[in-house]
Amino acid sequence: MSHQLPEPIPAESPAAHGTARALRADARRNRERVLRTAQQLFAQEGLGVSLDEIARRAGVGPGTVHRHFPSKEALYLAVSIDQLERLVAEAAALAAGGDPAAVFTLLSRMMADGAENSTVKSALTAAEFDLRTAAPEVATDLTGYVTELLDRARTAGLVRDDVTADEVMALVAGAFAAIRHADAHADPARAARIGGIILDGIRPRSR
Amino acid sequence: MSHQLPEPIPAESPAAHGTARALRADARRNRERVLRTAQQLFAQEGLGVSLDEIARRAGVGPGTVHRHFPSKEALYLAVSIDQLERLVAEAAALAAGGDPAAVFTLLSRMMADGAENSTVKSALTAAEFDLRTAAPEVATDLTGYVTELLDRARTAGLVRDDVTADEVMALVAGAFAAIRHADAHADPARAARIGGIILDGIRPRSR
Amino acid sequence: MSHQLPEPIPAESPAAHGTARALRADARRNRERVLRTAQQLFAQEGLGVSLDEIARRAGVGPGTVHRHFPSKEALYLAVSIDQLERLVAEAAALAAGGDPAAVFTLLSRMMADGAENSTVKSALTAAEFDLRTAAPEVATDLTGYVTELLDRARTAGLVRDDVTADEVMALVAGAFAAIRHADAHADPARAARIGGIILDGIRPRSR
Amino acid sequence: MSHQLPEPIPAESPAAHGTARALRADARRNRERVLRTAQQLFAQEGLGVSLDEIARRAGVGPGTVHRHFPSKEALYLAVSIDQLERLVAEAAALAAGGDPAAVFTLLSRMMADGAENSTVKSALTAAEFDLRTAAPEVATDLTGYVTELLDRARTAGLVRDDVTADEVMALVAGAFAAIRHADAHADPARAARIGGIILDGIRPRSR
DNA sequence: AATGAATGAGCCTTCATTCAT
DNA sequence: CATGAATGAAGGCTCATTCAT
Fold it and tell me: I need a labelling partner for D25 at 20 to 30 A (CA). Which of C73, C198, D14, D80 fits?
């Protein structure tokens, strides 16, 4: 939402004839294609994939990739932000509902996402490029929702008193890594068990 | 005969103290230096660091790195194995003692190591190069000790019945990632808290 | 549609003359330049020349060489095949004519080529990389024509009965080496004399 | 003979005690070993072989190779000269006999040598390093004998009037290449046939 | 005099980025 | 705006040569 692309104010556009509009639609389609392709390839092969490969698979020239994403880092961040935004949308929906255990739903969902698509993991882990610096708002948005849901669960006695939202986020990143390490990508039951153990860790020690 | 150590007229030698007996020691020192430098740089910057950079920082030529470690993978594996071997040694010591809670000690130690030096994490995660293939014995040894200590703890009722050694190892890898994600490398207390939450997850739900 | 040639408003185009239609022509020119430079340098210095040197002398970057010829072997083969194809064309033309002595014309021509440009020699010698494997058709074509012309000459009593096409080819390679060894590259008369001696060897002992 | 190694005048040697003599014998044995190994490897693999490989196979350290042959070129030239010297010896023996056809014997022998051991070929071809510059005397010696034997054969009407010793040498180099090209190294009969054709070329056209 | 570790220039190749068309 | 050719700075690795022992 607050992260729209830098768009040259379509209303005021000096060239409002048909062809320009068509091109812009094309451009957007290309951008989308590159983004999607990059997401897949980053997920499958890691950050090592070359931009040429991404361009080839997206069916565009390398120059086109560059026009939309001026550097590899920019593309990587765009992919990450894209994924985060989806999570934020889910978090918002859960926050709108009244379930006190919604944090667990959200966290499970995050873990599952990460298990399937390790780019989310990378996105959150932000190991190589700094997502928090580049797109502070989305990250903040997500943390905000997690905080809200966490507080709600705490009030209901469903999570330990001493655990913070930051730590919970870190644990999600940890769950990704754990699932990945156990090669449990493809075994949802096993991935769920590992994620479950970590979630159990944030539950209160029962009396 | 012709291969005797070339002793430059021992009587007249200007430096007759112990330090003179180097050479092969020098080679070993270089190897050690490269290994240590690589450990640091891999930990700090990831596998992306160039061998030339490692050589430069170790104060040797690129060829020297190559002499000791004929490929980047070989160097990486050497670093990983080196670290694993230390863990195995610790695990052995703990197994020799009788503490039923020794798993927790070992796991805490592993997590702390990983927090300080994410190469251990990489070593365990073995994402890029396959450690399990290259040095199966060390990895097996470690798993063996973990299994032993885990069983002992289970017998004492200190861990859940349903958790396996593989999962525990995966959780350690997850803890590394979580600690790293929380930027808690440098904050031992925080790292300990995060690690603690994960360890709590493998404890039995108390009665 | 979206992939049409981007014609920058043809009506207003400042340069509407023929010369503007380059680009792909540029690429082809570069390819040609690299090929020619490689031919020369391989001929002068052997396969030892570095690709960087070839690039430098062709006035392009090393990457450009790589784009057109993905490996040194590929470049070498391209050079060789290029030369062979010219020979095959000549052989075809000679085969089309009716001269029973055409073999000698062809062989002389091959020797002269080799004298000027020892890459042909390398191409035929195929010492380092295997041309016969990589481009079997061209090599086969050439041998085919030689066989045909040789048979024709034999029928006319112009060559010994016992000499085969393979041996003739080998002798051509030998002539290259002989001419090269005598430093007769630049002295056509001398090169011709040496080549002539070898050709005389395949003529029947007269009676 | 005139090409003996630079030997520090044994008679005047300041250190004439036993150990020095023993060591010198060792050194000579090493030199011989390296030379022989280099000969083999150059012949089998070409100039591409590394000095380390030569050292390893000769059972000495790389430093030892360097002590005897200060550069790769020096080693290569030493190998070549060594081979040439053997040819010169043979040529001298043939010149001492009275056979007018001795040139053919010598040339056949040279071709056979080259077929078996392409270093001789390289030595004569002197493609990469310039043998004629580095060791003019041996080359001159050989050419001298060839000239002598050639003249004698010419007088006896066994060779064409117009062929020179230089050309004959070049043809020998050509024969090496031809034999090599025909893959006839291992097929002496075939190699002989190819060599024979070339020799026939220098015979007078029979009346 | 031999050893073999160290050096470092250079090789082939890759790839993010720029730019002419 | 898209294209894709060109660029050129690394990267990993090799190897002739030097040098401490």
Answer: D80
